[in-house]
Amino acid sequence: HPQVGYDILRDIPPLADVLPGVLHHHERWDGRGYPDGVAGEDIYLPARIFSIIDTFDAMTTDRPYRAAMPVHAAVEEIDAMGGTQFDPYLATEFVAMCEERGVTDPEGLDFVR
């Protein structure tokens, strides 16, 4: 879907700056992602941000094949994948933002829903 999303948006001039982010949001910090196998800081910054957002949304949304993961569990998973799947700095910042909002506690406020 990264290529499809890119193709849909590429002719919309105001979105030109985010196109590389759309195309590369499945790249991984460790280089094992796609479509180009880019790694680390060579991944366009918006793509690194989109990757965390997309993954968090995927984990916390009901799917036909599985129920949504609790928000606090999704935050823990993103924290655990910092440095492999995700930019370690951005993963840490995401987790800190969630901690500030109380979502790392299973009894905490579920700010997403």
Rg, Å, rounded:
15 Å
Element pattern in H and E = HHHHH
How much helix, percentage-wise, in residues?
40-55%
Number of helices: 5
- Which structural category fits the helices and strands? mainly alpha
The fraction of residues in strands falls at under 5%
Q: What is the overall shape? A: globular
Major beta sheet summary = none
Distance, first to last CA? 25 Å
Number of strands: 0
Mean pLDDT: 91
Brief characterization of the structure:
46% of the residues lie in helices and 0% in strands. With 113 residues, it is mostly helical. 25% of the residues are buried.
Task: Give keywords.
113 residues; mainly alpha; 5 helices; 46% helix
Q: Can you describe what's shown?
A:
- With 113 residues, the chain is mostly helical.
- It is built from five helices and no strands.
- The protein has helices at 2-9, 19-23, 45-59, 71-81, 88-100.
- α3 (45-59) packs antiparallel against α4 and α4 (71-81) runs antiparallel to α5.
Secondary-structure blueprint:
Blueprint: H1 2-9, H2 19-23, H3 45-59, H4 71-81, H5 88-100
Helix pairs in contact: 3-4, 4-5
